[in-house]
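Q&A log
Question type: sequence-to-structure
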Amino acid sequence: MSTSEEVTTDEVTADEAQTEVSRCREVLDRAFEYLDGEMPDLDCEKLRAHLEDCASCLAQLAEDEKLKQVIRDGCPCEEAPQTLRARILVSITEVSAVSTSTPLR
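Response status: OK
Response body:
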């Protein structure tokens, strides 16, 4: 194999690795959206496909799910003040608008 072929192969491998890191980052950034059942179906399918091939993301998602359970189990059920609920709903709407405009790759 010539040096130019090796460089090309190394570059492709580096590009693939960077693409995979990007996919992992995106999956983990949207983990709670997935766990909360707020992710669009098509994105869920893409996320699940990634999880089938990525043990690292699957393990992190399991940890996030455990964290949600610990919080749920440890927090008393008290209703948030109405003004806080309104601010949260506005934020969710804004984030949701951004999330739907940037679909999972």
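Response note: Residues 1-7 have pLDDT under 50 and may be disordered.
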